Amino acid sequence: MSKSLASTSWRARNDIASRPWPGTTREYDLFKELVVGLVVVGLLVLGLSAVFSSPDEPTVTLKSWAVADPADFVATATTELGGTSGTAGYGPPYNSTPDATQKFGPIDLQSLSGVRLPIDTANDFVIGPLQTLPTPPAAIDEWTKASDAQHTAWTTAYGDALSKAPDNDPAKVPSGDYGPVPALTGALLAMAQQGTLDPVLSAKGSFYNADYKASILFLGDGSYFPGLADAQHLTGDQWGMMNETGNYPGQSWLWLFSALYQLEPFKSSPSADVLVVFSMVILTLLLTLVPFIPGLRSLPRRIPLHRLIWRDYYKHR
Amino acid sequence: MTVHRGPVPTADDGEPRFSTWTGKARGWALRRLPPDKLLPEDQPSYVSSWIYVFGMGAVAAFAYILGSGAVLALNGPTWFHASAFGRFINSTHLWSVELFFMFMVIHLWGKFWMAAWRGGRVLTWITGMLAFVVSIVTAFTGYLLQTNFDSQWIAFQAKDALNAVGVGAWFNVADLGQILMWHITLLPLAVAAIVALHVVLVRMHGVVPPLEAAASDAQLRSTAPNPATESEDTK
């Protein structure tokens, strides 16, 4: 008797895999299996929850940032005013900074979406919130009347001075031509430390708010927030995508997504995100469509783990 | 005398005869998935391995995800910070999700090594993969709803991948209202619908036989003669 290779084709045909099973059977109770499954999984869920609970690291606020690291807050506010922060130079969907988008070859999907969530960091993160104060600082007038070139000169000079000051402390910055920038950033720091910037930044003077992008982006432009994430092993180069605060399992199913960020050419590419997403889409499609792909679909035959799964069947053939 | 099986009149060839769209739909459903296939009391003898429990395990974990998620949703996304009971329910939600993914991944790889798409079961495989992918998106939106440090950081980091492919403006990870609606309505409904379709397809096509099953096997010879001929595609 010649023995042919087992087929791994997806096609329905006149073979054993395609026809109703005509051979021996065993008793099977679908509902009983469901109930047993619910009981076992329920006990596991309750047990794990009772023993390990769940993580709940408190949020970081603009207030906690301003109190814990005022120097970083002022330095970040200066970059927001000067348009040199990460958000200011992000590109779509927040602004139209030239050459800021991530590209996949000639494909620029980031630009295609357009500026749909516009953010002007100087006005939205600094000037606008200060204007909501009962007595807005007079420095706002000086700022709004100055040219863009003057804005850049002031913020660049003040940013440089802050970086050279002992502990980057705004109080230790030598005098210079900073225009209204120290007064504006100082007023914003005071506002944040009092806790009044948090509601103003996201809600923009309204009562309700559910969109926290302004606060999240402002926090992310500083060093304090990423520093806290780094301490919790949550940053991208720490496989943070699949980590969780504390000693809890996170989204471990994102391991491959996270792994690609650790590898070249993704790791050092300015378009790392779009390259990783495209790669993951392709890999996911490959796995989804594996029944149609000759060679890949034969792997179960070439690496016969199925003999373990069906060892009882093969033993009693 | 011709014995009519089922509640509907049949033609001479034994096929049920329906005249309405509803009846034709019922006839199609009954032909594709008769009650004894939908709710079977036996299975082929090869369905005898621990690998088979993980699909049902994932379904059971999904039930706990829906239950705990409903309690969390009804109390609002910040409830669990202030309530000890809320924290416990949040914990059951977390651990049922962790178990769900663990069971589903084991189930998926088990089915891969069984080449379970064989014999016209390709849609079963594809719906299983789809359930996995949509579950990942659903879990991701849940992590964004924790309203704690973790969700803040995930929102800050995840925006880059979404913006890079041009969808960040419509799927704004920092918009709690938008993400809440995705997480508690659209995505769970999608997962439930895909899982239901997947289970129905499993019942329709049956559990795939062993890769090397042959007509000469004792499990086949001990019953009615099997005319199966194994014309193979060995690509």
Question: How would you describe this protein?
Answer:
The complex is a heterodimer of chains A (317) and B (235). By secondary structure, chain A is an all-alpha fold. Chain A is 50% helix and 1% strand. Chain A is built from 16 helices and one strand. In chain A, helix 3 crosses helix 8. The longest helix of chain A has 23 residues. Chain A starts with 24 loop residues before the first strand and ends with a helix. The model of chain A has no long low-confidence stretch (mean pLDDT 94). By secondary structure, chain B is an all-alpha fold. Chain B has a single domain, classed as Cytochrome Bc1 Complex, Chain C, CATH 1.20.810.10. Chain B is 62% helix and 1% strand. Chain B is built from nine helices and one strand, in the order ααβααααααα. Chain B is elongated, with a radius of gyration of 23 Å. Chain B starts with 20 loop residues before the first helix and ends in a 14-residue tail after the last helix. The interface between A and B is large, with 123 and 109 residues.
Please specify the SSE layout and strand pairing:
The complex is a heterodimer of chains A (317) and B (235).
Chain A lengths: L24 E3 L2 H23 L9 H7 L1 H13 L26 H5 L7 H11 L7 H7 L2 H17 L16 H14 L2 H7 L9 H9 L2 H8 L23 H6 L11 H17 L10 H4 L3 H4 L1 H5 L2
Chain B lengths: L20 H12 L2 H4 L3 E3 L8 H23 L3 H4 L1 H30 L8 H23 L4 H16 L11 H30 L12 H4 L14
Helix pairs in contact in B: 3-5, 5-6, 6-8
Find the CATH topology of chain B: Cytochrome Bc1 Complex, Chain C
Instruction: Report low-confidence residues of chain B grouped into runs of 5 or more.
Output: 224-235
DSSP strand count of chain A: 1
CATH architecture of chain B: Up-down Bundle
Overall pLDDT of chain A: 94
**Helix/strand order of chain B, N-terminal first:** HHEHHHHHHH
Between the first and last Cα atoms of chain B, what is the distance in angstroms? 50 Å
Strand-and-helix sequence of chain A, N→C?
EHHHHHHHHHHHHHHHH
Q: Flag low-confidence runs of chain A.
A: none
Quaternary structure classification? heterodimer
Helix content of chain A: 40-55%
Q: Count of DSSP helices of chain B? A: 9
